[in-house]
Every structure is written in C-alpha cells, then in structure tokens.
Amino acid sequence: MDLFSEIEQRKATNAKKLAAFGVTTSMTDGGLVKVIRKGAIVTIYTVGYERRDGDGLMSVLREQGVRAVADVRECPVSRKPDFRAAALRALCQTAGIEYQPWPMLGSTVEQREELRASGDFRNFAYRFRQHALETMVADLTRLAESSRRVPTALLCYERLHEECHRSVIADLVADQLNATLIAIQ
C-alpha cells in the first residue's frame, strides 16, 4: 500500500469513529471537512494553516465557497512566510477572498503560555470562553454580522478545530447566528 492509500484509509477510519459521536465528515480535495453543528441558513468555517502552504489553503477555501478569511490570531506572524499578515492578505486578494484581521479575538500570550505549560486544552477553552464573554462581546457581534453577509472562515494556526481557540470563537459566533459550523481539517 502506498503512502497516499494509507492516509486515505486512515481518514476514512477516523471519519467512521467521528460518526459514532454524531460528527458528520466528508472528504474533499483539500482534506477532511467536519460538520461540528447544524444551524440555519448561515455557515461559518474554521481552518488552520498547520501543514499547509498558501496555495493549498486558498484552494480548500475556494472549494468550500469561502469568500472571507477572519484571521483571529492576536499576532498575525508566522515562521511560514505565506501566513504572515501581509503575505496572507496578498494570497487572499489574488484568490478573490477578503482578508479580515481580527487580532482582538486572539488568545493572549499569557493564555497560550498557560496552555503550553498545562497541556490542558479543555481548561484553556473554558477560561478563554469566559474571557471572550467578558471582553469580546462587541467584536464577536461584529464578526457575526460580517459572517452573515459573506461566507467566512476563521483562521488560526492549529490544523484541528478542537485544539484551537478559534473553536471557541466560532461557537460563540455560531450561537449568535444559529449557524452551521464546519471545520476544514
């Protein structure tokens, strides 16, 4: 079995396991897409750039019909040149996707350091949610209104939705809109 076949088989096995928990998945050219929750008319996407290049990211976003990227990193810098703010903005522009910086919705350095030290994402997500509800309500509402007008993907580094603060942001925005939430893996 070649490496590609092995990866495809592993993805199919993981999809079956997720289905047992009520998580719908499907394969696309860009990878696995998970429906985190079903909602009304609006769909919000989340995506991480870990293990991607700029062209691959733009391709999967276009494939899903995303028209705006909400960059929810506090500091939109990266070791990967394609994902530094200016380069990402240029990639989006070339792809016909609007780039929206939302650094005020990022997790803080202190929050990330605490997560790194503890390794407890569940506690981090709980605390980040409380922080967001105390300090980010107006920005979350603005992001919800923007997402209502144009199909939007929340972007951060981590490839897995459930291992990133964007999962909390996406959930809070989806709550406001009764939106479907899809994670592009």
Characteristics:
disordered N terminus, 7 helices, alpha/beta, Cobalt-precorrin-4 Transmethylase, domain 1, 19% strand, seven-stranded mixed beta sheet
Number of strands: 7
Sheet of most strands: 7 strands, mixed
- Assembly category: single chain
The portion of residues assigned to helices is: 40-55%
Distance between the termini: 24 Å
Question: Which fold does the CATH topology refer to?
Answer: Cobalt-precorrin-4 Transmethylase, domain 1
User: How are the strands of the largest sheet arranged?
Assistant: 1-2-7-3-6-4-5
Kindly summarize this structure in a few lines.
The chain has helices spanning 3-20, 54-64, 85-95, 109-118, 121-135, 137-149, 166-177, and strands spanning 24-28, 31-37, 43-48, 68-71, 98-101, 152-156, 180-184. It has 185 residues and is α/β, with parallel strands linked by helices. It has a single domain, classed as Cobalt-precorrin-4 Transmethylase, domain 1 (3-Layer(aba) Sandwich).
Explain what you see.
- This protein is α/β, with parallel strands linked by helices and 185 residues long.
- The chain has helices at 3-20, 54-64, 85-95, 109-118, 121-135, 137-149, 166-177, and strands at residues 24-28, 31-37, 43-48, 68-71, 98-101, 152-156, 180-184.
- Strands 1-2-7-3-6-4-5 form a seven-stranded mixed beta sheet, with helices on both faces.
- The model is unreliable at 2-8 and 17-21 (pLDDT under 50).
